[in-house]
Design a protein that fits this description.
The protein is of the alpha+beta class. It is built from two helices and seven strands; from the N terminus they run E-E-H-E-E-E-E-E-H.
């Protein structure tokens, strides 16, 4: 399903069902509580927490519910696989603006790291690309290559998500807008790094 996928075992999604038990007899059972659970590796592609479960109709039995659930899940998983290409296209669009990424997730395209310079200040930009990209924008984290804390670890920014973004933009425009944001943010980050290093 996904080229180059490192999974060694079949990934599974399980449905947990909890039926309410009451002291009084009812002719129709109450709707059960339903929850999807998956293997941890599957979250790189698809989060079951984001799945909207089909509604449970009064009087329905599990044999009636499961085909609807399977059909819904199949469609959502196929969409998740198709979004890998959107993320890959975005990572490829970063290269003309920033140069080739230093590192990128080649399978699920969820992460990329860029080397950026603002004058003599050099830093890394880590992009964390959500499974719901482009509806949700990537989170950015800046990491200095010149400033270190008292433990010797590089100084990093908090996750940045407050920058101009539209899912309707072309991937090249998304990359250009991130560059425009970083031009200003690099000055703030350099100041933050200098202050943090002076405190150590």
């Amino acid at each position: 399903m996904v080229r180059g996928c490192p999974w060694r075992h079949l990934q599974k999604i399980h449905l947990q069902v909890v039926y309410p038990v009451g002291k009084k007899y009812a002719s129709t059972a109450s709707a059960p509580r339903l929850k999807l659970v998956s293997t941890p590796e599957l979250k790189a592609l698809f989060s079951v927490d984001d799945v909207k479960l089909p509604s449970w109709v009064d009087g329905m039995c599990m044999a009636e519910y499961l085909p609807h659930l399977e059909e819904s899940l199949e469609g959502q998983i196929m969409e998740a696989v198709s979004l890998i290409d959107a993320r890959r296209h975005f990572i490829e669009a970063l290269a003309p603006v920033f140069g080739r990424p230093v590192e990128a997730d080649p399978v699920f395209c969820r992460k990329a790291t860029l080397l950026v310079a603002s004058g003599v200040f050099t830093f890394l930009v880590h992009l964390f690309i959500p499974t719901q990209f482009p509806k949700q924008q990537p989170a950015l984290m800046l990491q200095s290559s010149q400033h270190f804390n008292s433990q010797g670890a590089p100084i990093k920014s908090l996750l940045l998500t407050d920058y101009p973004w539209s899912p309707r933009w072309e991937a090249s425009q998304m990359a250009e807008r991130i560059l425009e944001f970083l031009v200003d943010e690099s000055l703030n980050f350099k100041r933050y790094c200098n202050e943090a290093q002076q405190q150590t």
